[in-house]
Amino acid sequence: MFPYLLLLFVVLPVIELALLLRISQFLHLGGTLLLVVLTGMVGVALARWQGLRILGQIQRDLGEGRMPAPYLIDGLLILFAGAVLITPGLLTDIMGFLLLIPFTRDLLKEQIRLWLERKLRDGTVEVVHWEW
Question: 43, exposed or middle or buried, with CB in 10 Å at 0-12, 13-18, 19+?
């Protein structure tokens, strides 16, 4: 777990900063700031739009008595995309925009499904039902 946290909180911000400094050599400070703000604003608007669409699908499935599991995962991935899109930086923006593309999100969902199936088979993940 520690190496992932090191990557997330130390290495990624250093790479983002280096990339932004390099871009500012071409776009200057104002252009670079504008790029960061615009990608964030466009990304959050797209995430909001897709999130509301997925929420509508979840409500329809629940209303018809179907389990909306695939849409729940979509919703979590879109939420994550929105979070990384408001994080200043271009690598995180690219990652966020990729999660907003249904095709790439479907590829990631398949990988998550395979990972969960493997963990359940190995017995390293246990599903617990809570009664409130």
Answer: buried
